[in-house]
Design a protein that fits this description.
Butyryl-Coa Dehydrogenase, subunit A, domain 1; 16 helices; five-stranded mixed β-sheet; elongated; four-stranded mixed β-sheet; oxidoreductase; Acyl-CoA_dehydrogenase; Acyl-CoA dehydrogenase NM domain-like protein; alpha+beta; binds protoporphyrin IX containing FE; Flavocytochrome B2, Chain A, domain 1; Butyryl-CoA Dehydrogenase, subunit A, domain 2
């Protein structure tokens, strides 16, 4: 790279000959100035000077990478201070990584988990990151190629937990299928949520994480053999269709009906489903239908996209990248073999499935909150107000500390529950962890609420601006409420936790 002295750069100080120094690199901005989103005027004012401080006060560092074509050289015998970590590396910002990952002793994480985390992060940094922002901003669903690459790395299957479905698969970092546990899975959820682009992460087949387990755990053999391989490869997509316009957390109120034909070979399905993640681009719908009256009248049915199935994109607070759909089933003919579990046994399937979904949501939410905290720490350290960095203000340190304390508390509880999952069968998890996971999810979304609130106050106006330095904060605070509603509303979660506890409350306990 060509080297210049600072005196040499200083000569290029006019609008038609405009160089600046940013972090020891020399940029020729002459032709760029008129296209500069912050105006040409501000660049004219710093022409020929070192504008490092002004730059970092107003831009995210990624912009330098994006506009690296403007670099014409470097300042002789100076090195850049900013180190852009290579793909797959961990952040050195305090609390930006969970404590266990940073070489602190942990009762849960082994070398296998750490090498897995590094490999999944490398995959996400190199395959997902370039796609993420572009697709999310356009409101497009993730590139099919990306979904296929996730399939080639067997990551779709890994996000569905440990189990027989991993047998014979080659996993990243040489992790053996038999050593893969819920901590490996949790790490995969964390990494997939690390972009601060919620709806993009949702679009990465998160519908599969909730739509495929009923097939895996309760589906008939033919369904597992024919459908699962297509899902794991990324060739086909599946989603979970439970909620309806009139019934959200109140699963017992489901109205979408499936009536058997006189020959007994088919169901005819009629009804609508709302807020179905990935529904706009799914090939299969794991659908809760009413086959009779009362709680035993609910069944789960695998419905393939075809005649009578229509999906419309719902305009949510996020973007269309998540594929959130309004689904209509109109006289859809479904073979009776497509029942998942027993006819009339849908309620149990739904309840068992919710645990895994809620737990995975906590993993993703913790990773998202961590990213926000990292951005806040960086911003508070580099942003100067009233003559000193924001972090010099006790009120800012309090807000940051509050966010960290809340996050680490939730993270610890979620790790303990993850450990319990590694020691329990799926049935035991359903019986014993539904209540604690419900309460954990509630605690988690209260934490993200506080993180969003504090982060907005730390970032100020930039937290309500979709582009620029606070873009991750803006997104986080805009979609934060998704977690408090999806997979069961906060109030329902708390109630579930207490009702489950009441079931095992000792009859002979007295004050
Ligand atoms: C390599 C040099 C530079 C590049 C490639 C660049 C690029 C950009 C881009 C892409 C934005 C839009 C940011 C966004 O909304 O995401 C922006 C905004 C801005 N830039 Fe630059 N810029 C450069 C240097 C500078 C310098 C040296 C200054 C000040 C002296 C400056 C001042 C601003 C201002 C004031 C804004 C508007 C910020 C806001 O809306 O909060 N830029 N720049």
């Amino acid at each position: 790279m060509k080297e210049y002295s600072r005196q040499e750069v200083a000569k290029h100080n006019k609008p038609d000959d405009l160089w600046v120094i940013i972090d020891a690199q020399v940029y020729n901005l002459t032709d760029f100035a008129d296209a500069h989103p912050g105006s040409a005027l501000v660049l004219h004012k710093v022409a020929g000077t070192d504008a490092t401080e002004q730059f970092f006060a107003l831009h995210r560092h990624e912009i330098l990478r994006k506009y690296s074509r403007l670099v014409i050289g470097k300042i002789a015998s100076e090195s850049p201070l900013l180190s852009i970590p290579p793909p797959g590396s961990f952040s050195k910002v305090p609390y930006a990584e969970s404590l266990a990952i940073l070489d602190k002793p942990s009762p849960f994480y082994t070398q296998s988990h750490l090498k897995w985390k590094a490999a999944v992060r490398h995959f996400c940094d190199t395959v997902l990151a370039p796609d993420a922002e572009q697709y999310s901003n356009l409101g497009k669903i993730p590139d099919k190629e990306v979904l296929l690459k996730i399939g080639s790395a067997n990551l779709h299957a890994c996000r569905l937990g440990p189990g027989d479905h991993l047998k014979g698969l080659t996993l990243l970092a040489g992790v053996k299928p038999e050593e893969f546990d819920y901590f490996h899975e949790a790490i995969a959820h964390e990494e997939f949520s690390r972009y601060g682009i919620y709806c993009y992460a949702e679009g990465l087949a998160s519908g599969m994480m909730i739509g495929a387990p009923p097939v895996m755990k309760f589906g008939p053999a033919w369904m597992k053999q024919q459908v699962l391989p297509k899902l794991f490869s990324g060739e086909k997509m599946i989603c979970l269709a439970i909620t309806e316009p009139g019934h959200g957390s109140d699963v017992a109120g489901i109205q979408c009906e499936a009536v058997k034909t006189p020959c007994g070979k088919f169901f005819i399905v009629n009804g609508t489903k709302k807020w179905i993640t990935n529904g706009t681009f799914s090939d299969y719908f794991t659908t809760a239908v009413r086959t009779g009256k009362g709680p035993t009248g609910i069944s789960m049915l695998l419905i393939e996209r075809g005649e009578g199935v229509t999906t419309e994109s719902i305009k949510t607070s996020g973007t269309a990248t998540a594929g959130t759909a309004y689904v209509t089933f109109e006289n859809v003919k479904v073979p009776v073999e497509n029942i998942i579990g027993k006819e009339g046994g849908g309620f149990a399937v739904i309840m068992a499935n919710f645990n895994h979904e809620r737990w995975a949501m906590v993993a993703g939410a913790c990773a998202g909150a961590r990213l926000v905290i990292e951005d806040c720490f960086k911003w508070a350290s580099q942003r100067k107000v009233f003559g000193k960095p924001l972090i010099e203000q006790p009120v800012i340190r309090f807000k940051l500390g509050q966010m960290i304390a809340e996050l680490e508390a939730v993270q610890s509880w979620y790790e303990i529950i993850t450990y319990q999952m590694t020691k329990m069968s799926y049935k035991e998890q359903t019986q014993q962890l539904a209540g604690p996971i419900g309460l954990l999810k509630y605690r988690c979304t209260r934490m993200t609420n506080l993180v969003a609130d504090n982060a907005v106050q730390i970032f100020g106006g930039r937290a309500i601006t979709r582009t620029g330095m606070g873009r991750r904060i803006e997104e986080f605070q805009r979609v934060n409420k998704f977690g408090a509603i999806l997979g069961g509303a906060e109030e329902v979660m708390v109630d579930l936790g207490v009702r489950q506890a009441m079931k095992v409350f000792p009859k002979d306990a007295r004050l």
